[in-house]
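Tokens for ribonuclease Z. Go.
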Amino acid sequence: MKFFYQVISTPTADTPGTSVCLNFPDKRYFFGQLSEGTQRACTERGVKLSLLTDVFVTGRTEWANTGGLIGIVLTLADTVSTSMAAIEEENQKKAARRAQREAEEGKQSKPREPKEQEGEGVSQRGNLTIHGPANLTHTLATSRRFVFRKGMPVYLNEYDSETLAKQMSIGAEDPFEKPSWSDSNIKVWALPLSPHPSARSQVTQPRSQSPRKRSLDEFQESEQPEDHMDQRTKNLLVTQSIVQDMFNSTWKMDALHETPLAQVKMPAAIFIRNPETKDLEQYKGPVPGGPDALPDIKVLVRKPWPGATVESLPTTSPSKEAVCYIVRNHDIRGKFDPKKAQELNVEKGVKYANLTKGQSVESLDGKTITPEMVLGPTRAGKGTAIMEVPSSEYVDDLVSRAEWKSPAVTTELQAFIWILGPGVAEHPKFQEFVTSMSHCKHTVSSPDHCPNYLAFTSSASSTVRLARLKADSYAVPVHDNVSLPQPGTPNANSESAIAARQNSPLQPLEPGFIINMEPNFGFNSDEVMSRFNPSNALDNIPRSVQHRMEVIRTRVAKPIFQKKLHEHRTQWPGADAEIIALGTGSSIPSKYRNVSATLLKVPGYGYYLLDCGENTLGQLKRVFEPEELREVLQNLRMIWISHLHADHHLGIVSVIKAWHSENFQNGSDSAARPETNMAKILQEKRLAVVSDDAMISWLEEYSQVEDFGFDKLLTLSAHPEVNGPKITTSFSHRPPSHPRHSVTFTDQSSPLTPLLKSATGLADLLTCRVKHCKGALAVSLVFSNGFKVSYSGDCRPSDKFAVIGQDSTVLIHEATFQPDMVGSARAKRHSTSSEAIEVGRRMQARAVLLTHFSQRYQKVAFVDKRIPRKFESNGDAAAKEPADADIPFDDPQDESASSNDVLLSDDINTAMSRQRLGVYTGPVAGAMDYMRIKVGDFALAQAYAPALEKLIELLERAANEETERVKQARQQEENARKAKNNKKWAKQMATATAAAVAAAATETSDVQTAPARSIWSASESEEGWETSDYEECS
């Protein structure tokens, strides 16, 4: 049986961690750091997640190792859900056909029992087990407010020194004979390393935090008596139960439950049943928390989804243990010897097969023949050690482990995969250990040995060519294919690190590198990706794009355009401010677009980050050189998170940690008593994080796992209120275990108001609720120089947003769907590009930047805004697609929450579907990753958009063609391999191929086909693009 390891990622700005995939014919296993960017790396490399059953996280539980885990799990859950839905649909079609056939034959249809084999297959594909260090379960449980899937059980195994010590066979000759975990393919031994050997026996004790609001009895599922369980075990049971509810709950959104009105937790959609018609009607009377007395009645409400019922988690504290793994496949039975079987008088056929399966049989002369009598010698399973050593502090424990003396662990140990922190390879004891294991092959992945190459070549290729076309908006992503250690890392320019690599037995890993284990051990570099060289792409621009650029340059050089551009640059507030698009895609990262993040640079004020999707820090590292990035982090004033969907905030922990590291290089005293005086808090050096209260709670809960700088944040929960046509916002800050402080930007009588403005650099911060998911917010940032930026996050086009964004200089609005996909946009509570522009018209924004494009549907961001049109029909085919599963929608957003906000709609495209959109006269631009645009240059961005988007379109076409070519080549190789081993199959394939070729020749004999045109040389004439230069850019 063939199986092998293949490298997915090594540390770069794009993929901060190291991950490898263990491939068996029926299963996949991930080992290493599931860091941010891992999912995108799988997309780039074509790694399929459908066979993934187990994930083994190495190292410590910290965001650098687990930041991509949630994205991987969500994608896998969606893959399983889609597969199950397809299977169910196919089964229904089969049942319908069978019923029709039996009806025609006059037979009575009988339901069929499902096949056991099919059920087993579904079960195997529908489970995921995550292995790793302490606090891994707690980390996943913190995401319960924004992660919700059904039908894919997720199990967790945590490994720590104390628990593993209890499982050892005391007094046995080899105490490690039994592995920590095993399945039908492999055995795994977990090795938790401590920074100091003496610390290995210490039990992690939880630190004091806010008390839980639910009792442990609600989650108790253990068969052990409670007295026999320590508190840590009890806490683990609680968090495991929560994670189970997150991925395998029976909760249904459409189920209504009867409850007394006084017990309803607001906000909520409340229904009553009409006593006459028995129909459900929305309740419109007094509600809990309101000024009016409540009637003593029972109402119908939706039961909260599981994540919403858990107010807080059991407490924990950071663990310093770093988990490593030694992996061995099971021993392989020897090869069957038919001569021996014949000599022993064994009948050929089934008995031969049973012997090869390890079963005893009876010979023709009545003797019992065991497998050992006819099989060759058993081959011991081969082992690989996957070792993460975060720092030199862990080396002493590494070299002194008792496992290195265990035959069960070390027999046939073939290779080490070292995942090393900066400077570890220089440690003398580490080098001695590697030398002592010279009979093994040693590979390494670390910033000291692997350069900061461009891991996402698809995105890099498009960005490099965009930089060639418009250098003031795009630049070659920051990278270095040569320098080691990597520039910008703690070990950069280290002479000792350079010396340690000379004559080192450690072979650096690269993506695509294969370690073959069976049938023959060895290394294979055939699939290693070549490092992207920007110089090869800079001069390679399609001819049709060059032609567009020539026309556009003629247009923008005309006096009327230059006059308008000058007015924008000199008269617009904040014309010198710059918008930097870090992530412009939706839902999941793709080859060309990362998920949501936009950086706002306002000279004289600082930097402001609007949303912070996965690997936003990596995107920053691609835009800014190390010294420039230091300046950005030192002057980062605020992070705004629009809502709690994973694609908008999973990068925030890494950014906060980098900010904290840059601004508190000597460390902050996290053990000191937290400051509770709001005036002092506002005067300290802090990073403002503004969002819904649930976002702040997530950060606070995760801070128990890792000290990433939470104690130095100015956390502000936004509380917008609608009063007729006006919307006001107050903010609250809650120090840990202390009452909230309330502040606003408008209370002139409060001494905190000027401190709040000084702390954030803003004159005002306006927010409103929008229609997308629970807690979704839009925002307007107002600066004292008159510059105003409004950011939608994800939402339907909103009148409320148009109100708070009135007279914005720039509107940044999501445009997930194309104009003709209103049905899809409404179903998923997003906006089309036309709807986004209509919001800009209503708020009278000077310019509109469209972003958050669907990775599936939206290929081109350009919108012809000059032609008035009606709101498109809601009946497009994709409208039936299910809405986002995470954070079930709040029904109050479908109706007016109260009479106060009846004047302002959450969706301007409801009753107005037949009205015409107004004409928006300002410039509109579509964002691409790494795009930098100055506010005063929006007219230029709009003018050049047709050329830039044509380039992207052609590059995507070329990539699809190349993917198809590679797919066909691999299929041909597979067919050739099968043909070599199966002559009958080869003959059938040859006959089928000849027939297909003949049929194709017959169909095309009378058709004259034009030669295929290369995207690079074709000069295309397209509908909607005027190649003359008379057209003025508006």
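The two ends are 65 Å apart (CA to CA).
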